[in-house]
Amino acid sequence: MDKLLYLGMTGAKQTSLAQATNANNLANVSTTGYRADFHSLFAEQIAGAGLPSRSNSVLAENGIDTNSGSLQHTGRTLDVAVGGEGWFAVQTPEGREAYTRRGDLQLTSDGQLLTAQGHNLLGEGGPIAIPEHSSLSIGGDGSISVVPLGQGPDTQIVIDRIRVVALDESQLVKGEDGLIRQRNGAEGVPDASLKVVSGALESSNVNAVDAMVRMIHLARRYEMDVKIMSTAGEMADTGASLMRMS
């Protein structure tokens, strides 16, 4: 009976965690540049005396779906997307470098270019700062050009270039802040072949229909795991009853 309890208990625990991951994906179906998480498990044999007949379901690590979302053209100057598998580099509050696909940028009153989450967008020389200007444009290579305030269009100057990097997909890990990092701690490598699409945003790569179907599947699997535990309890009670009768 204990084998049944282990199977039911570990299965129910990990299924509930998978359901939480799926629910978070579904909640971010409309979040710009969001990459879905997935829940991966493996069987781990329980060490100890007795026969090697019991295994726990153990969470290996939440993985990341690296498929790109679709491009949605907005026409807004500060909306940008990566045209490929690259990532925008941002600065975390701790001063470290992390990565995102989210390109709905905001310009603060003091000229700081931030992501919608409030992180400084990084350029070739660090956080991007933009002086007062009458117009701004972002090129396909990520270069940010402005026409200084009070000047004509022929005085357009390049301020900085958005840092767009390539990452090793086998090393990707998502932090609690939603930003992507490499598991080995290495920084991304700038890649000139990666293009920036101005006036567009990348949608979330979560498929709402698939997520809803998966939610139903996980709910049914959880019910099955609970039923296994209930059956193990009933079998134990029946066995104890037979022993009392004998």
From TrEMBL:
The answer to whether the entry has keyword Transmembrane helix is: no
Q: Where in the cell is it found?
A: Bacterial flagellum basal body
Q: Which Pfam families match?
A: Flg_bb_rod, Flg_bbr_C, LlgE_F_G_D1
What GO biological process term is on the record, naming one?
bacterial-type flagellum-dependent swarming motility
Please report the stretch or stretches of sequence annotated as the Flagellar basal body rod protein N-terminal domain.
Answer: 5-35
Keywords of this entry: Bacterial flagellum, Cell projection, Cilium, Flagellum
Q: Which family does it belong to?
A: Belongs to the flagella basal body rod proteins family.
Cite the record's note on assembly: The basal body constitutes a major portion of the flagellar organelle and consists of five rings (E,L,P,S, and M) mounted on a central rod. The rod consists of about 26 subunits of FlgG in the distal portion, and FlgB, FlgC and FlgF are thought to build up the proximal portion of the rod with about 6 subunits each.
Name of protein: Flagellar basal-body rod protein FlgF
Organism of this sequence: Litorivivens lipolytica
Lineage summary: Bacteria, Pseudomonadati, Pseudomonadota, Gammaproteobacteria, Litorivivens
